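re: that complex we talked abt at group meeting.

here r the seqs, copy pasted straight from the sheet so there may be weird spacing, ignore it
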Amino acid sequence: MAALAHDGHHGHDHHEESFVSKYIFSQDHKMIGKQFLMTAVFMGIVAMMLSIFFRIQLAWPGESSDFLNAFLGDRWAPDGILSQDMYLGLVTIHGTIMVFFVLTGGLSGTFSNILIPLQIGARDMASGFLNMISYWLFFLSSIIMLVSLFVETGPAMAGWTIYPPLSALPQAVSGSGLGMTLWLVSMAIFIASSLIGSLNYIVTVLNLRTKGMKMTRMPLTIWAFLVTAILGVLSFPVLLSAALLLLMDRSLGTSFYLSDIVVGGEMLDNVGGSPILYQHLFWFLGHPEVYIVLLPALGLSSEIISTNSRKPIFGYRAMIGSILAIGFLSFIVWGHHMFITGMNPFLGSVFVFTTLLIAIPSAVKVFNYLTTLWKGSIVYTPAILFAIGLVSTFITGGVTGIILADSALDIAIHDTYFVVAHFHIVMGMSAIFGMFAGIYHWFPKMFGRMLNNRLGYVHFWITIVGAYGVFFPMHFVGLAGAPRRYYDYSVYEGFNSNSYEMMLDLNVIISIFAILSALGQALFLFNFFYSIFRGQVAPQNPWRSSTLEWTTPVKHIHGNWPGALPTVHRWPYDYSKPGMEEDFVSQITPLMEGEEEH
Amino acid sequence: MGSKLIILLVIILGVIAIAQLVRVNELTAKHSGRREEDIPHRDNIFNANMMLAFMIFFYASFIWLMLKYGYTGMGPAASTHGVETDWLLNLNFVIIIAVFFLTNTLLFVFAWKYVKRPGVKAFYYPHNNKLEMIWTVIPAAVLAVIIILGLRTWNDITGEADPEAENVELFSYQFGWTARYAGMNNVLGEFDYKLTTADNQYALKTRENIELSLQKMLVGGPGEEGIQMIEDKLNNESVVMAQADRKKLQIDLSRKERMVRLLEQMALTYNDSIDDLVNDDVILGDSLVLLVGQKYNFAMRSKDVIHSAYFPHFRAQMNTVPGMTTYFKFQPIYTTSEMKDIMEDEKFEYVLMCNKICGGSHYKMKMAVTVLGPEDYLNWQKTKTTYDGSAWLNFDDRERAAKEAELLEKYKAIAATVAQ
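got the structure back, here u go
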């Protein structure tokens, strides 16, 4: 048992570590978590910049911009006008980085690493070495993805879902050359990183819980991380196989996804493959991926809402049940991305049914959050602002999912901006808000210093207004019939002025909000980096929270607790319990005589 | 250059300003002994009020967007099934907008109302099974209704096409569309991608086209070496060739030999009735013309990558997939000129566009669609010729008038099925 190796006198006799083993090839989960966070913050800035570039094109199509030329050069923005190929490249890499590198690697990587051992009372992850490997594979895949932006033929340009044949044929689009190869290599490494990490999280949660930490006493964060890791382990290998088959089709002349193709005047002799096969494999990961992104954010916000409204989370067991139900259902809904691919309509009906079922556990979660806030005593830290923002975006983006899951309705709005609005709100905004909430809440635990709250408030209000300002109008653009991944909407010009003018108007509004909210993130970055060095020194338990991580010393030590591991006596949500002196009771406080657990 | 400098200057000044504000904030905090973890009452109240203000602003913006942009855009559905899906869409919108307002209001009002106030303790309320049961069962019931209505419509849309429906093929390629009408026999001619040549862009299957392709493989054509030429080159001892080039030629040769074998097989199984299927097809590269009220069954295929045939006004969409034929059927209910009146837009036209990312010019891949009334449609039909060059309406001169009158009657009857 790995636990035994860590037990005992750790912390007492730990030796001074060198710079390299402490900050670079660290095997300490806290440092690895911070490494994930730093990488994700950097990747997030890159992906946000890419989106600003294409938003400029969408709002002011064909207008020259020094800004674009300065970043993209004469190769991709001659005369300051974005090239139509690079437009697709930007869209593709923006999506890829945001979904995988920021919201999967960044969110789950950061918080699973930092919180799992600290909240279950473990010295470290089950395997510190594998944990380190997981980070460095993530780092390597990030670098490869970034490098692909600088390839002469451009980065991958087939959309983040890289459907073949477009992604398989360099003759079809320039980005399907070296750029796509790098994309696939990067993703293969990323998946390896994610698998190693996830296995580690699962083993740690199942085996290394401290005495008294029953499964039903774990904070909801840990439940969310556990189910997320299980989803990842079961679904990422399928994407890996999809990517490998695609690599073979591209390089070794196989025909898994290719059949009957004449491209660029060249007749290919691939026969018998099916491009739809790729879509099945991709979405078998792709849909659980949505919840891989979302569940950690929901877990973090459960914790934050409970702590800062000084109330136990309402319906703890129902919350666990809904996490498990969402996790299970997420594996049998992937076909709702494929209603109009020519898939058998009966199969489509089955996916309509399973997909709409997911709305039930999601509704339970929302109502439980609302009841948690009800009659609370809310302390407005920046963390709970973002958590409340998450509940709002989860509702707003979630309800439109009901329309998209209905195959008959999906026909007319599939692949339009209505879809873009839906998933950016429910998955993008919610997950990013969860991530910000997590950063504001656990910053003192990570860096031993406090963030500036008032900058945090300004950051939140700019972000929620800005982000809704970007994504909410997209519903209307989509309902007017604007397909996504269009370089401009001249397709409607001249003979459908209603739609065309509406798209022009709204795209300007959307882009202005996008630029404003991007600038707003500068406040966060400043606050983040400034506070790491100059912030007010944190006390041990700044938010008066009852979970275990706040019983460790502020200054990080290897092994987390000096002396013996804590013993857990109660669930993590004893806030404002009647008959108690304080408005919170730490999990390590034994039950009083005659006290019911909850 | 000047503008860049100014932008840079503004950013630098902005950062300095924030830094100074933070310093001031810190100094005052230090002076008054305030610590970050103790949120002052003032800050709590400020954020609580902001929650309410934000909710009002959010709702106001939503309503403004709905009033200004909610009823424009695609206009009313122009197909039979589109009318149904629009009705269903509206029903769904009523439900989800109600849920949206209800839950968001609860969220922001609670966030505003239950802010920490001195002396008020939070209410310890860990669970209530009855409540949780209520908000499991009610969404489940509402969803059941949505699912049943949705699947009923879906089955109608995707069910077998009416045998009377006219067959039209949509052929997609980077970056355009071609329509092929099945002609008087209402059966589309066969195709095989291996028959694609410069002279046979749509890879249609006729004896002549098979011969043409065989010829091209064996002898070669402009820009392409035939088997004979490659063999000569490989066997010519006086030609010096790099190993890699030789390898490439050999691969090309074996590929072409395989193609020839397949084409020869095709020629063997071929019979003349296949020619007839192709010969009366009508190919249109520039636009798709439909008869109002006619039921259409579209067969779709793609030459290169996945495209998607998106008809926003007809609420119709289906991917076109290389190697696989996909189908979608619909029945237009308004002619283009009727739609011009409805949309109050003299220039209005229907459009077919590509809605699956397919390469650089994806956004330009479209085809005009026109829906005509019976007379106009017949007149248009008279001007069109089939694949083998004869007239689409290939009647004997003696009975032409009678047959055309008969067709017009038929078209009028079809149009009458959707007349308002």
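couple things i noticed - The longest strand of chain B covers residues 166-173. Residues 191-277 of chain B form one domain.
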